[in-house]
Write a structure and sequence with these properties.
By secondary structure, the protein is of the alpha/beta class. The protein contains 13 helices and 17 strands.
């Protein structure tokens, strides 16, 4: 008999009762260092006083009113994001997939409003992940995610990640724009080279098409900048954000230049829940923390420290780890043994991580971690590696 809760996840047999900072405690009282952060979502960790107080105080006032009315908290959050980024305007929704849907609709509508409705196709990249809706699994292009869901939604073309010549060759009279993750998360923690992002910006300008960035996982401070594209010194036309934007409360956003934002007129796009008073309270609380001068610089410093520690692991345990990837606090360890085995062994040692493509283990802790937590994570990974090597003839150097 099927379970009451649909069995579409391979959940670990563990349930967490509460958390403190970067730590989670299960129902039996066991302690785990959370370097998964709910898949890069619990940006302020667990039990953060400012975030939890903001949510509780707002919940006691009003939780939801819909977008039939003004939501002052959403107006404030949008203003703060505009002031801190390239964007002129922001649309709030509830998830990364919704944000990417809104992004693609805005790109298409921008061209339609300019008298070019034939420009609807979007160039995407191999190894991408843009969400689980019918359109976004088409944008992702992974056959595993597409299987069984009927005809693939039209309008997406895929090229090799990092190949500017392939992008140029794919551009045609029906191309509306390009959609890329500055750092592919699900695809194996693969950063796009800054020079490639700069070349994309120049090519889009040359061809009169739009540059859209999926910053659902790599945005909101994860790399040590508010948005990862800032490292390349470029400005996109539109981006998607979600995951860490509200510290674990469901929220997504589309941030856009005026040219793109003005395409979404009343009736063209909407959401019942997006930008609710409660979501906005959570989002503003996160901004209160990550926009404090020096906070993001601290994330970058801690991220470099973590990266150095992971590089040392690769040297000491070549039978388990072969390469360090990523930037900031979005890091990946390329595994020699199955990454799911390493993930499971890490959990046995008290470390929570997330598997990714290309046999990579993701380490994406809350942004509030410091070098002390990183040292603990490295020690736990050493024990994890030893556990993985137990029973084999390969050992640490």
């Amino acid at each position: 008999m099927i379970a009451a809760l649909m069995p579409n996840y391979n959940r670990a047999n563990i349930a967490f009762a509460y958390g403190e900072g970067a730590w989670l405690f299960d129902e039996r009282g066991r302690k785990f260092l959370d370097f998964g952060a709910g898949i890069a979502t619990s940006s302020l960790g667990h039990g953060h006083v400012h975030l939890t107080n903001a949510i509780a105080e707002q919940a006691a006032k009003v939780i939801h009113v819909s977008n039939l009315y003004r939501v002052p908290g959403a107006e404030l959050m949008a203003k703060r994001l505009v002031e801190a980024s390239f964007a002129d305007s922001v649309f709030f929704c509830n998830s990364g997939a919704e944000a990417n849907e809104g992004l693609v609709k805005a790109m298409r509508k921008t061209h339609a409003d300019a008298g070019q409705p034939e420009r609807y196709r979007v160039i995407c990249f191999e190894g991408a992940f843009h969400g689980r809706t019918l359109a976004m699994i088409a944008a992702t292009g992974n056959a595993k995610y597409l299987a069984g869901f009927g005809p693939v939604v039209d309008g997406f073309d895929h090229v090799a990640f990092g190949d500017i010549d392939a992008v140029r060759a794919a551009i045609g009279p029906h191309t509306a724009g390009v959609l890329i993750e500055p750092v592919q998360g699900e695809g194996g923690v693969r950063p796009a080279a800054p020079e490639f992002l700069r070349a994309l910006r120049a090519l889009c300008d040359e061809q009169g098409i739009l540059l859209g960035l999926d910053e659902v996982q790599c945005g909101m401070g994860r790399t040590g900048k508010l948005f990862a594209h800032e490292w390349a010194g470029i400005e996109p036309d539109v981006i998607s954000a979600a995951k860490g934007i509200a510290g674990g409360f469901p929220m997504g956003a589309v941030l856009a230049k005026e040219r793109v934002a003005k395409a979404l007129v009343p009736g063209s796009h909407g959401t019942t829940f997006g930008g609710s008073p409660l979501a906005s309270a959570a989002g503003n609380a996160v901004l209160d923390v990550i926009l404090v001068p020096g906070f993001l610089e601290g994330v970058a410093v801690t991220g470099r420290y973590l990266g150095d520690g992971l590089a040392g692991l690769c040297e000491r345990f070549p039978g388990v780890f072969s390469e360090v990837r990523g930037m900031g606090l979005l890091r990946g360890l390329k595994c020699v043994v199955p990454n799911t085995d390493v993930q499971a062994a890490g959990m046995e040692e008290g470390l929570l991580t997330v598997a990714a493509g290309e046999n990579v283990l993701r380490l994406i802790p809350p942004l509030i971690v410091g070098t002390a937590e990183c040292d603990v994570a490295i020690a736990l990974l050493e024990r994890t590696a030893a556990r993985c090597l137990a029973g084999t003839e390969v050992g640490a150097k």
